Amino acid sequence: MMTTRPTATPARRVWVRWLGCAALFGAALALVVSAFVHPVTARADFDQVFYDFCIQQLGQGKDYCCAHAGGVIRDGECVNPG
User: Fold this and answer.
1) pTM of the prediction?
2) Greatest extent of the chain over all pairs of C-alpha atoms, in Å
3) Domain boundaries, the chain
4) pLDDT averaged over the chain?
């Protein structure tokens, strides 16, 4: 008795190979593009405690401490930018 074993046809092998390549390319493209399309999530929250620490303990100037504390200088004072 002779049994037949199903084998993939050449057209099916080509289709599976093409599908695999397309999936790999799509995954690689999504990984590369994701670095550029994420929305900006960082925000500058003014940290008064760090500003005071910077002025008193580190001895830095208002401009430096204000910038690193997330504030802006207005009328000579460091204030919350929002």
Assistant:
1) 0.47
2) 98
3) 48-79
4) 83
